[in-house]
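BUG: 3D viewer hangs when loading the predicted structure for this chain

Environment: internal workstation, default settings.
Expected: structure renders.
Actual: progress bar stalls at 90%.

Input used:
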Amino acid sequence: MKHNDYVYARDYAQEDEPYYHCCIPAEEFEGIILPYFEISLAEFKERALYNAEKDIYPWQDLNCSNIAYYPTVIPEITEATENKDGSITLKVNVMCLDNKTDCLFSHEVTVMPYDNGGFKYLGNKITYKSQIELPSSEPRIPAQRTAKEQESE
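Structure tokens produced before the viewer hung:
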């Protein structure tokens, strides 16, 4: 798998217990995702539900049972600032036609560009929220949804 490739469930072993998921080999999964985040391998494994016995990560493609519906949002980069350390901070306004607002929220995303055209995500900060409630994220894999619910209690 290379950057910008689509992941197809048919290309991986699948299991139904304790929930339906595909089994992506750990080396492949870590090699694609981990370079974008400043996170230890141990924390990554915990958050991504690494299975040490099988050396895999569970993954689900989008389907009718795990999709969350959100209003359509349209991001617009209004400013790009090159920082002293070489990173770039993008100021983004997010319009939402479904809620009839030209600015549902604004945020700043900071990335570190690589010479090969890629980048590393460094951070994201919401700088403005309208009165309209922002959609929350919903993990696809049931065990991650349970962990998220426990964190918020």
